[in-house]
């Protein structure tokens, strides 16, 4: 495992930081935050120009890039889903679809959102009821998807649809790449607790060519699993790091009724220490996933361990910080009197959603139990 970074990795990380420091100005960050949309075309093109969009580098360095982007709250969610789906197409798509989609996706010339969850299914993705019915060389799609983040601006949606209702729920599914400018597609805004815009998307007699099918008919679950495995291996440690730095800064500058710096309060120091420890653990769990991938192993259970621990640690940390900062921590982001520019209040709201993204904590625990420990259903 990589417990220390070598000189090449440090130099790459420093280059990434320098670029992000240059382009992520306070004005840019505020505009992205207030919009609730984690995407910006110019920012993404800048990553492509700097060879930071999908760099051909070691897995460790690619993870360092993701860490720096997450730490900086860079607007890359749509870029990440685009790259993820391009990787699935590379493994399971037709040669024609590979030629048509992958080069443009890697050049940030098109974007792809995710269409898995449905309003009535929650975390049970395989219970999808959105239907795709064969009509000659096309498919007719009817249904709806929830949490189609960036579905109002993306070019395509990576859509899970039921093509055979007579088969068991995991067996009658097929994956499609649906152009979002197709007649019959509608996106309606849904705002999350953290202020992010996601969408509910509706599909009414949407006609899609069979050329846009990814993988075999009724074999969508195996195709989807390629994407879910990538999602489940996410780590949220960089948000812990940023919260810790803001909390330490506040504790050094704020004083109690006697004029003593809050950093001298044993309770504050204890909570800060726990955040620091859990950030270190989150980092090592994520690095283990990278190391396993380098060894040709799939982090089937280790990825969910990383995601589960880091998100729940972020919730604990946000609660701790809000408790020792007190009522001032509830002042909103960009409210002039808010401590640390309102990041404590924002990260409290944001942290709660991370335990749902890419599979809820309950889903992660189930994967760890069944696929990691071999326990029965």
UniProtKB/TrEMBL annotation:
Residues 7-108 form the Acyl-CoA dehydrogenase/oxidase N-terminal domain. Residues 113-200 form the Acyl-CoA oxidase/dehydrogenase middle domain. GO terms for molecular function: flavin adenine dinucleotide binding; oxidoreductase activity, acting on the CH-CH group of donors. It catalyses: a 2,3-saturated acyl-CoA + A = a 2,3-dehydroacyl-CoA + AH2. Its cofactor is FAD. Keywords: FAD, Flavoprotein, Oxidoreductase. Pfam families: Acyl-CoA_dh_1, Acyl-CoA_dh_M, Acyl-CoA_dh_N. The keyword Oxidoreductase applies. One of its GO terms (cellular component) is plasma membrane. PANTHER family: ACYL-COA DEHYDROGENASE, ACYL-COA DEHYDROGENASE FADE34. Belongs to the acyl-CoA dehydrogenase family. This is Acyl-CoA dehydrogenase. It comes from Mycolicibacterium phlei DSM 43239 = CCUG 21000.
């Amino acid at each position: 495992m990589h417990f220390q970074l070598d000189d090449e990795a440090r130099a790459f990380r420093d280059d990434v930081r320098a670029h992000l420091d240059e382009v992520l100005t306070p004005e840019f960050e505020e505009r992205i935050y207030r919009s609730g949309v984690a995407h910006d075309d110019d920012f993404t093109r800048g990553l492509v120009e700097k060879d930071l969009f999908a760099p051909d580098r070691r897995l460790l360095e690619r993870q360092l890039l993701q860490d720096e982007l997450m730490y900086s709250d860079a607007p890359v969610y749509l870029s990440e889903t685009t790259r993820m789906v391009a990787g699935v197409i590379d493994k399971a798509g037709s040669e024609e679809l590979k030629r048509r989609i992958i080069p443009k996706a890697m050049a940030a010339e098109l974007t792809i959102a995710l269409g898995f969850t449905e309003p009535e299914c929650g975390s049970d993705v395989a219970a999808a009821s959105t239907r795709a019915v064969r009509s000659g060389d096309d498919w007719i799609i009817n249904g709806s998807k929830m949490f189609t983040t960036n579905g109002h601006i993306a070019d395509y949606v990576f859509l899970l649809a039921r093509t055979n209702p007579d088969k068991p729920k995991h067996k009658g599914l097929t994956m499609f790449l649906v152009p979002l400018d197709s007649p019959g597609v509608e996106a309606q805004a849904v705002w999350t607790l953290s202020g992010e815009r996601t969408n509910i998307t509706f599909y009414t007699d949407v006609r899609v060519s069979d050329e846009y099918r990814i993988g075999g008919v009724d074999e969508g679950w195996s195709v989807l699993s390629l994407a879910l495995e990538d999602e489940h291996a996410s780590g949220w440690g960089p948000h812990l790091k940023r919260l810790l730095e803001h909390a330490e800064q506040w504790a050094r500058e704020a004083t109690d009724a006697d004029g003593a710096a809050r950093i001298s309060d044993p309770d504050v120091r204890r909570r800060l220490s726990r955040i620091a420890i859990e950030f270190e653990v989150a980092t090592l769990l994520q690095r283990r996933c990278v190391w396993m991938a380098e060894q040709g192993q799939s982090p089937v259970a280790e990825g969910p361990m990383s995601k589960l621990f880091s998100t729940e640690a972020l919730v604990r940390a946000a609660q701790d910080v809000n408790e020792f900062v007190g009522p001032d921590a509830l002042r909103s982001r960009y409210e002039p009197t808010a401590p640390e520019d309102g990041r404590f209040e924002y990260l409290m709201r944001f942290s709660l959603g991370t335990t749902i993204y890419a599979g809820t904590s309950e889903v992660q625990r189930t994967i760890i139990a069944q696929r990691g420990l071999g326990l029965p259903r």
